[in-house]
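Sequence in, structure out. First:
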Amino acid sequence: MRKKQRKLQLPEKLRWNHNEWYRRWLLRQLPSEVGSALDVGCGLGDLARSIRADEVTAIDASARMIERARATSEKVRWIHGDVLTHDLGRYDVVTAEASLHHLPLREGLTRLAGLTKPGGLLIVVGLYLTATRADHAMELVTLPANALVGIAKAINGTGGKPHDTEMPMVMTAPTLPEIRAAAAEIVPGARIRRHLFWRYSLVWRAPEVH
């Protein structure tokens, strides 16, 4: 994948966590009752700890992230491993928050779909590469909105924390057309939406087995 171009950076005090912004949206997509859930690329485990399910499993390729996440909760099953190769089961809900771009797109999406039980739900919130005219037009809204939110968060004392300093960063991402093309083949019927702040969402219900 191509290198993700740098977007205009706010001063440090005005930067903020875009993933946290969309986490509330992601959690609202979950069913009221969830038996088993898997969070892929869990990082420090903020999303995994927020998922209400009978059993929550979280996996990350970073040993340091899992070490720190494990210290925060014993209710989640924390796994250090590569989601593409680790022996995992299938889950009623699979989530991926800003983690799919750490994997080859088609291989990663295929794996996430395979981890989702029939009738289960796959929810992705990810980064996309600004590439099309529509993407650039969106930035006419995104850039000033990003600054306004940063100012508001700085005023109330919640700004200046775009990500943890130990969080592995990967400056690559697929384009939205690439994401839509892959989804059409791998998870047909998935709902894909462009969001503000350089994010997209993908929600897919795995077909029931008859």
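Second:
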Amino acid sequence: MSLAVRSTAEEAMDAPDLAEADYRAVLADLATVNTVTMARRPTLDFLARAVGTRKRFRLLDVGYGEGDMLRAIARWAAKRGIVADLVGIDLNPNSAAAARAATPANMTIDYRTGDYADLAGGGFDIVASSLVAHHMTAPQLRAFLRFMEAEAAAGWIVNDLHRHAFAHAGYPLLATLLRWHPIVRADGRLSIARAFRPAEWHAILADAGIGPAAKVVRRFPFRLCVERLR
């Protein structure tokens, strides 16, 4: 598969007819992938800068999956004595049940099903998404960027993959070694092929009317994050 042009092939986990049991198994393995690849670290690093000296904040996570990013944020805030009002929104109705099942009873996170656009005016300090942007088309991504720019009082972050040849070649070896779900093995490589490169991000930001106000930064390993601090 050539990486010169971004792939638009559909990922299996996005199929509307994927069985709930398979979807839950995929989400569970993806949470493990996020741990192994340190996928949450860029968002937590950004959060520290965006929250600053605030003693409380309200955050929206778009496309939460099994909720592992929101749980990491909840632990981060609790450790620092910060009150975190955490809301997640996900289009897939099976995500909410999976996320609630994986979340401790003493951890308060509002998992919702629906379209992020319906949450406009929600009073969010921060809007975040982790490994979601590559699932979107360029027009969908522009609309999402405009939403975050309008709704996030303190800042927003898109934490996503970098379409990089080494990651594309190496991921199948890692996925096979760790015996991840077959969909996670196949979709992971396709996700890398669907990801945007820095020049593409800059063009999308310009088209969205945001331009250099947001920074496109590389994060280890093979992450591209788009960050906007106010």
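Remark: The chain has a mean pLDDT of 97.
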